[in-house]
UniProtKB/TrEMBL annotation:
The lineage of its organism: Eukaryota, Viridiplantae, Streptophyta, Embryophyta, Tracheophyta. This is Pantoate--beta-alanine ligase. It is an enzyme of class 6 (ligase). One of its GO terms (biological process) is pantothenate biosynthetic process. It catalyses: (R)-pantoate + beta-alanine + ATP = (R)-pantothenate + AMP + diphosphate + H(+).
């Protein structure tokens, strides 16, 4: 398995693969890998000849009050988890917002050397490094991708700037890795939809695949942030998936008005001491709110359990007529 910290090395490798006639599948992640991510890797292997996984905690998608500094980072553990899956390359840039044009060569090579060393000593990020990473993207970067309507509802309301950061970094990855196929999880439903729309609108020649949401045995949607939960909070958080099961049954039994279904979820979460961020039933492509389930829909949820914000969703089918 190749490990690249430098974007030029990553691009060179991808182009060599292309020249050799290989199809490239790409799985972007923020690391701290779990079985949900590995499921995406398995899917990627079915789609292409070689698989690239990126591991990068992207500073531009975090608001200043969010968990960029404390987000779990474990490069060595992640590489161990990927090894059995015969992933071909891992792209772990130290910083994708460093301005590397128009500088003198010695400053550039010094930055590259220091960034590679830091990435190798993963975990060595200190507060000063993280603060400077956050500042660099605000000071050294001024070009952003916005998916203007899809970025607004749901997570976009409570995390302003989040989808701008995601769309921009995914675009950067697409230009660096140059994949034929890219795999995203439906756990981050709005993110997946937004990337599909961006690829369509900007004519990227990349096939986007959305993979099913993977759950723990007890129903909790797998997520790197689950590690923040205490065991008591984790039990409370099960109220989300429990409520989704109830929604599924209610729809099968003919309850189709969104407000009743939303109320059902809300009560379950509040009863478990969770704080609801949003619960919405939306049309699947546009993510516009629906009053009734009269077309393929999705119920999307975000809720806080203590300091941890979790998201989950379930696709809902309208009744057969
Ligand atoms: N449970 C899951 N099922 C399917 N895909 C998932 C799951 N968890 C994460 N993914 C997908 O893995 C990719 C990388 O996600 P990321 O590294 O942010 O992990 P995460 O578990 O979603 O982390 P976080 O807790 O920060 O939301 C995304 O496409 C995401 O949708
Ligand atoms: C797509 C992504 C890797 C962009 O940073 C991130 O938002 C994620 O892990 O879902
Ligand atoms: N899984 C999406 C990345 C984030 O929440 O920051």
């Amino acid at each position: 398995m190749e490990l690249f910290h430098d974007k030029e090395d990553m691009r060179k490798w991808s182009r060599a693969m292309k020249r050799a006639g290989k199809k490239i599948a790409f799985v972007p992640t923020m690391g701290s890998l779990h079985a949900g991510h590995l499921h995406l890797v398995e899917r990627a292997k079915l789609e292409a000849d070689v698989v690239v996984v990126s591991i990068y905690v992207n500073p531009s998608q975090f608001a200043p009050n969010e968990d960029f500094g404390s987000y779990p980072r474990d490069l060595r553990g992640d590489l161990d988890k990927l090894q059995p899956f015969c992933v071909d390359a891992v792209f772990n840039p130290y910083d994708l917002y460093v301005r590397d044009a128009g500088q003198n060569d010695s400053e550039l090579s010094e930055r590259k050397a220091s960034s590679q060393q830091k990435a190798v000593n993963e975990g060595a990020d200190d507060t000063r490094d993280l603060t400077s990473k956050r500042q660099r993207y605000t000071h050294e970067h001024e070009t952003w991708i916005r998916v203007e309507k899809l970025e607004l509802p749901l997570c976009g309301k409570s995390r302003p700037g989040f989808f701008r950061g995601v769309a921009t970094v995914v675009t950067k990855f697409f230009h660096i890795v140059e994949p034929d196929v890219a795999i995203f999880g439906k756990k981050d439903y709005q993110q997946w939809r937004l990337v599909c729309r961006m690829v369509r609108d900007l004519d990227f020649d990349i096939k986007i695949i959305g993979c099913e949401l993977i759950r723990e045995e007890d129903g909790l949607a797998m997520s790197s942030r689950n590690t923040y939960l205490s065991s008591a909070e984790r039990l409370q958080a099960l109220s989300i998936s429990r409520s989704l099961k109830k929604v599924k049954e209610a729809v099968l039994n003919g309850t189709l008005d969104a407000s009743s279904l939303v109320e059902l979820v809300k009560q379950e979460i509040i009863h478990a001491s969770g704080i609801v961020d949003y619960i919405e039933i939306c049309e699947r492509d546009s993510l516009q709110p629906l009053q009734f389930i009269n077309c393929p829909a999705v119920i999307c949820i975000a809720a806080w359990f203590a300091r941890v914000r979790l998201i989950d969703n379930l696709e809902l089918e309208p009744p057969q007529s």
